[in-house]
Structures are given as C-alpha cells and as structure tokens.
Design goal:
Blueprint (H helix, E strand, L loop, with lengths): L1 H5 L7 E4 L4 H14 L4 E5 L13 E3 L5 H10 L4 E4 L5 H4 L3 H22 L3 E3 L2 E2 L23 H20 L3 E2 L1 E3 L1 E3 L12 H11 L2 E4 L7 E5 H13 L11 E2 L3 E3 L1 H11 L4 E4 L4 H6 L8 H7 L7 H11 L1
Parallel strand pairs: 1-2, 1-4, 2-3, 4-5, 5-7, 6-8, 8-12, 9-11, 10-14
Antiparallel strand pairs: 11-13
Helix pairs in contact: 2-8, 3-5, 5-6, 7-9, 9-12
Length: 320
C-alpha cells in the first residue's frame, strides 16, 4: 500500500513535532521510507535521537513558540504536520497547569497555522486517557460517557473537539487516533501509566525480575508500536471521504494485565519473576477501560492489527 502511493505523495513535505519521543522516532523513520528522507523534517526541543541521525533533516523547535513554528512551516515548505509533543498522564499529574498549557496550546498553534497556510493534513494523537471511571470497562465504544480523571485526559478530550471544530469551521483536514498503551524496544517511554509494559521487557532481559507499579490483574488496552505506526499512516493515507470521525478514532489490538504479560514472558524466560508495589499510577489505570471497541476505524479505513501479546513478546525479547 505504501509503495503504490509513494509516487502520488512525493510533493508532500512533512514536519514531525516531537520526533525524538517514543512515537516520534519510529513514525519519522517510517514516513521517511515512504516520502523520502529529505521530505520529512524532524523537530524537537530535545537532542536528535540517535536512530534519526543521518536519515533526514532535523531542526530544534519549540512548538509553544508560534512565530518560530510558523517561520519553519513557511521556510521548509511544509504541507503536513504530525504533532506528537505532549506531557503524558503520570508526568502530567505532577504539574497539571503545565500539562494543560502545553498539550492544548501546542495544538491550537498548529491548527491556526494549518488554517492560515492551507496545509493538506494535520495529525494529532489522542489517548484512551480521555475515558474515565464512568466509561464502560469492556469494549468501550467510540461514543460513550467520557469524564477523564487526569489532566492529560482532560487536555486530550478538549483537543479532540478543537480538531473537530477546525475541521468543520475552517476545513482543516486534521485526523486523530486514541492510542492505547504503546510498547516499543526502539525508544524510551515518556511518563505514561502504561509504561510498565515497556519496562518489564527491559528488566526481564537485564535482571530477570521486575517490580510492577500496577496490581497483577490490572487489564489495560495495549498496542505494539509497529501496529500503532501503521495505523497512523493508514489513517493519514485514507481518502478524506472515508474519515467519518473528526474528534479521534478508537484504536485497539490487545488488552492484558501485568500477570498476563508475565506469563507471556515466562514462555520465553521461564525463571523470570515479578513482584508488585502499586503506586499513584494504579488509580489512573483503574479509571480507564479494560478493552476498546474500534469498529469505526476497522469499517472506515480498514484498520486491522497484526500483533497479539505472545507475538509481541517474542519480538520484544529478540530485539531489546
């Protein structure tokens, strides 16, 4: 699919904001394979990630500085923006005003510039953190009761409606996915409640044991990064008429608990041990659904996940 459309997409020039983050690194590399390295500009406040070096242009950029961002968009002839910069759930609870300000204002800056410069598309991720204690726990539907209990979730839910507003009011083609917990061996997690599912593999390989900050039966929606990257690109490649959700699409592949991921690891490393020491992140996890209904994404643009828990475990342990 990517190869077939490559010729038609050659004229696009993409800016990835937050390119050195957990999603940004792998998404930037995937986009460069499709569009060509020189047509995907990576940017971040942090230093360029080692995996990105030599694969395409990199600029130091503060998305909160709207003038600087606007200058870069014009200077680089940008036609699409992927905005990945955010303060995540657990980190956001340590400084709620900062998390709200960064998560919301960065999106408004990008949407304003997209409107003014008539960008072809904008991507902005939402999260399962928009759901709260009153949302259905099993197969949480696309449209349901949404009362987030974290500042991260509040900022993401507000952002979904800003996306919807800019699309319907100004015609900005902005698209979004509600990511579940994401798991990757290539880049470090960024302070989310689901980060244990990355840490547990690292500790399994290094120490053969892990102390988990969530309780053993805490099931949460999760996804392996290759599936998340593919979902993002497939959403962005889909014809505009196929996109019926302009807030953010539910997205799912698997759900598991610390006990279940432990059992999966023990199939590969039988002597691996886990202990439990729940902290403040347990309360956040308890407020989220255990599984997600993503029928809309599967129907509208053909989403289909590839990795289940055991397949992911084998790949993670081989590549760490």
């Amino acid at each position: 699919m990517f190869v077939v459309q490559q010729v038609a997409m050659k004229k696009e020039k993409i800016l990835v904001i937050g390119a050195s983050g957990q999603i940004g690194v792998e998404l930037t590399l995937a986009l460069r394979k499709i569009y060509g390295g020189s047509n995907v500009v990576a940017s971040d406040l942090r230093e360029e990630n080692e995996l990105l070096k030599g694969t395409g242009p990199y600029v130091s950029l503060d998305v909160m500085n709207k003038e600087m961002l606007h200058v870069q968009v014009i200077r680089q002839n940008i036609t699409q923006i992927y905005l990945l910069a955010a303060i995540l759930s657990a980190t956001g609870e340590k400084n709620p005003p900062l998390a709200w300000h960064l998560n919301t204002q960065s999106l408004l800056n990008v949407l304003d510039i997209a409107k003014e410069e008539k960008l072809t598309k904008v991507y902005w991720p939402s999260s399962i953190a928009v759901f709260g204690p009153t949302s259905p726990k099993e197969n949480c539907p696309q449209q349901t009761i949404i009362e987030p209990s974290t500042v991260y979730g509040i900022s993401k839910y507000a952002g979904e409606f800003w996306c919807n507003y800019y699309h319907h009011r100004y015609g900005v083609d902005v698209r979004s996915l509600r990511y579940p917990g994401l798991i990757s061996y290539k880049s470090s997690p960024g302070g989310g409640t689901t980060d244990y599912a990355v840490e547990i593999y690292l500790e399994a390989k290094e120490k053969n044991k892990y102390t988990c900050y969530l309780e053993a039966p805490t099931r949460l929606p999760m996804m392996y990064m290759p599936d998340a990257i593919r979902a993002t690109i497939e959403l962005m490649e889909a014809p505009a008429q196929n996109i019926s959700v302009r807030t953010s699409y539910n997205l799912a592949s698997m759900s598991f608990s610390p006990a279940e991921i432990t059992a999966s690891i023990q199939k590969q490393l039988p002597s691996f041990e886990i202990s439990y020491k729940p902290d403040s992140r347990q309360q956040i996890a308890n407020s989220w659904p255990q599984s997600i209904d993503d029928t809309k994404a599967r129907k509208d643009w053909g989403w289909k996940h590839e990795f289940d828990l055991d397949k992911m475990t084998v790949d993670m342990l081989q590549n760490i």
